[in-house]
Amino acid sequence: MRRRWNKPVAILATLAMAGSLLAGCGSSKETTSGESAAAPAETTAEAGGEEAAAPVEAEEVSYPLAEGGSLTYWLQLNPNVSANFTNLGDTELGKSWIANTGVDIEFQHPASGQESEQFNLIVADGNFPDIMEWQWVNNYPGGPEKAIDDGVIIALNDVIDQYCPNLKKYLAENPDIDRMIKTDEGHYFAFPFIRGEKGLCYTVGGFIRQDWLDQVGMEVPTTVDEWHTVLTAFKDELGATAPLCFDWSNFGKSNPIAFAYGVGTSSSNFILDENGEVKFYAAQDGYKDYLMTLNQWYNEGLIDRDLATLNGDQVTSKMTTDQAGASVGWAASRMQVMMTTAQAENPDYLLVPTPTPTLNAGETPIYGYIENQFPDVGAAITTSCENVELAAKFLDYGYTEEGHNLFNFGTEGVSYNWDGDYAVYTEEITANPEGWPIAQALGKYIRANYNGPFVQDINYLQEYLQLPTAKECPDVWAVETASDHTMPPVTPTQDESSELATIQNELKTYVDEMTLKFVFGTESFDNWDTYIQTLNDLGLARAIEIEEAALERYNAR
């Protein structure tokens, strides 16, 4: 945004190799005081044990690049784009990205639903595109360091030093982010997608029909008991057949009730307890209490009977046809879509966000949904790239002021206009002449509503959330201490990776099966000790040991 985003300049400070904050979205856990946020960046020579050259200052770069050139770029085509385009290069975003950088890009996309399969085929073939965008931490066996060792992608330390003044500056100013996008060995591996502010990390939460609350004379629930009372009223007084309705596959472990019991998790199966120790979410005492609550609600008809098999479209249907009164999901693609749909028939229909509940009135939530500022999406330069300098400068564009505005807002005068320092989407987005939903309209012009090599701006979210109560979601869903209990993007060693994956797969299969049995009452809670013993027999202690070691290495980055 204007005056909030620094223009590209030559950078005097070098990248931090050890940040001062425990990452996690807005974490406040400090390491030793006095750690420098601008320590010299490790070079490739240093990583290999050779004598390191003096750090190189990144040269100033002007766009479009005078030298030009062409590159191949492999990435998944987001559904917001693929609904109307077969290639990112056909969108206004793609055309502007190419024109503004002066680099001719051949975008390559895997078939929808076959992304992992086609990625693996490319890796096995060894003939890589110049740039590959992927989830390198979680979806490459052994993590990004293994991808470097396997000769798939290159370490970017020297590349960023020499050719990327904008990303280099951002990382030097944000040591917590800097720590997230390097390996334990100190190698930068990708040009990252970064959520620029903590408010962008509160993406999921509960919401409830305010018009129904008004009818039963109740307030928005703030405790688990109040939730029970409200859902009962929706069932008994308003005839709701599924008072609480959400798709378990997406939100079984990330819904507000789970967080009330201290066992919710945003992504990883491991959480940090109040002492900062690594715990497996489904082995905690609170998990049993959580499932006992759901079992009670299920037996009382307060939760959708189809909980195990519901998908998002079915949830939306029930929420917009008076079958359900409360749900869990994303502010824009669920809550806002439901309101827009329902209000066409019922102008009084109103959804409002619900805060993370507590067990007792007056308590402050400790655990809550929050995502990492680096959600493990990054564009890496492969070993097949013959013009690394061009690829680096092309990708660094996303961290310039112009690139920032393009990726977040699109084309000035077409998809947005400035109101002072605030970008306002035009009717091309908010009342699209093609009749496209706002998410698809945005997909033509920006990448902020999914990801890419840039820093996401909260101004985008404030404009994307069109309805007043939807705009309230990030503030209502925020739990200040949530990041203290969320695992940062740690990486096991190459040797540990396959072992951990095997254990985690077995744990997940067993937990998924037993959780629903406990909820539906087909498994007695008298067998809880047997459940815990089975988790231990499947290698839980070893998995925690690996995660603890990875966290220790992460904190030492």
Topology:
Elements (H helix, E strand, L loop, with lengths): L43 H4 L22 E5 L4 H4 L9 H10 L2 E5 L6 H11 L5 E4 L8 H7 L7 H7 L1 H9 L1 H6 L10 E2 L1 E2 L8 E6 H7 L7 H15 L9 H4 L4 H5 L9 E3 L5 E3 L4 H15 L12 H8 L6 E5 H13 L7 E4 L23 E4 L6 H9 L4 H9 L6 E4 L2 E4 L1 H4 L7 H8 L9 E2 L1 H7 L3 H4 L1 H5 L16 H27 L7 H10 L2 H16 L2
Parallel strand pairs: 1-2, 1-3, 5-14
Antiparallel strand pairs: 3-11, 4-11, 6-9, 6-10, 7-8, 12-13
Helix pairs in contact: 13-23, 14-15, 23-25
What would your notes on this structure say?
With 557 residues, the chain is α/β, with parallel strands linked by helices. It has three domains: 44-195 and 373-456, 3-Layer(aba) Sandwich (D-Maltodextrin-Binding Protein, domain 2), CATH 3.40.190; 201-371 and 465-485, D-Maltodextrin-Binding Protein, domain 2, CATH 3.40.190.10; 494-555. The protein is built from 25 helices and 14 strands. It has helices at 44-47, 79-82, 92-101, 115-125, 143-149, 157-163, 165-173, 175-180, 210-216, 224-238, 248-251, 256-260, 285-299, 312-319, 331-343, 388-396, 401-409, 427-430, 438-445, 458-464, 468-471, 473-477, 494-520, 528-537, 540-555, and strands spanning 70-74, 104-108, 131-134, 191-192, 194-195, 204-209, 270-272, 278-280, 326-330, 351-354, 378-381, 416-419, 422-425, 455-456. The protein has a five-stranded mixed sheet, with helices on one face. Helix 13 (285-299) runs parallel beside helix 23 (494-520), helix 14 (312-319) runs parallel beside helix 15 (331-343) and helix 23 crosses helix 25 (540-555). The longest helix has 27 residues, at 494-520. The protein is globular. 49% of the residues are buried. Mean pLDDT is 91; it is low at 1-54.
